[in-house]
Amino acid sequence: MLLIEKKAYIYALISSIIWGSFPAISRINLNHLNNYQVLFFTNIIAVCIFGLILLITGRAKKVIHAPLRTHIPPLLIGIPACLFYGLFYFSMKRTGTLEALAIVYTWPFLLIIANWLFYGEKMDVFKTVKIFLGYCGVALVISAGNGLAEISLSHWSGNLSAMVSVIFWVLFNSLASRRKSDAVADHFFIFLSMLALSGLFWLLSGGGIPCFSALGGLLWIGALNMSMAFYLWFYALKIGDRTKMAGIMFLNPVFALAWVFALLDEKITLYQVGGMLVIFAAILIPVKAGRVAKEEI
Fold it and tell me: Rounded distance, CA 119 to CA 77, Å?
């Protein structure tokens, strides 16, 4: 039993390390391609990988013979997922990697606000402090210590794009987490939906085929970040303690920061590093499980 739990930790940790590479590798991809090309070709790879997993594990036949109505929800869930990736790539073209990264990692805070506004979960002191610190950290990263008024218009458009992308990521997570069906099959149809939508964006933007030097980065995102990391994560949740596994995801911002330092030659100020640490600290603040407020009768 201890060995199984150890394997679950290893798989979850590998997933977190791979996911942490997403911003840095995406930035490298965007040096060679536009955001629509990156989105479309990484989705092609992800669909192929998940389709291959379904075939190898013997689940393809079951998926093919399942009623069409069972595939409609994941196909719809793929829409906000595609919009998240598209807007995030757009923001990375217009602003710094660390700025886009800091904004995207505010999604747990936005989720708390959404649960409070739409599901009646109570807002307590811990949640309020968590949200306040999180957005203070974002302000530090975006301003880089120079003040928000000095940010250029192009950076503002990138930052706003990242903020909107977070809304779609929260929507995607909220919808996907409520699904009780086969996670691998679900993600195959999610990526299939993303492929169709990103293909439309790619065609409308003028198409274009990636150069040979861009293939490595596309394969990394499509095969590892969007596919293998998800598969290992699902497997870790299946054989390990879900609560303990979820705790490993708190390391994502740390790994992301390490990848940015290791791979990118971007000017990063101490204010930005401090802001990322504030965001990380805010994420770590524990909150009680949300309780829905009782309605007045």
Answer: 20
Nearest CA to 275 out of 157, 152, 148, 167 is that of 148
Number of Cβ within 10 Å of residue 221's Cβ equals: 25
Cα 178 to its chain centre, rounded Å, is: 17
In terms of Cβ atoms closer than 10 Å to its own Cβ (0-12, 13-18, 19+), residue 7 is: middle
Query: Dihedral of the CA atoms 192, 88, 162, 132 (nearest 10)?
Result: 80
pTM above 0.85, yes or no: no
Position 291 in a domain: no
Q: How many domains does the chain have?
A: 1
Residue at 59: amino acid letter: R
At residue 1, the pLDDT reads 58
Report how far Cα 288 is from the mean position of its chain's Cα atoms: 24
First vs last C-alpha separation in the chain: 49
Residue with tokens 């700025």: 99
Q: How confident is the model at residue 278 (pLDDT cuts 50, 70, 90)?
A: confident
Range of the domain at 74: 2-284
Mean pLDDT of the 72-81 span: 95
Least Cα distance to 45 among 230, 220, 233, 231 occurs for 220
Helix (H) or strand (E) holding 227: none
Q: Within a domain: residue 289?
A: no
The CA–CA distances, whole Å, from 134 to 92, 116, 174, 282, 284 equal: 20, 17, 20, 5, 10
> What does the angle CA 170 – CA 40 – CA 167 come to, to the nearest 5 degrees?
15
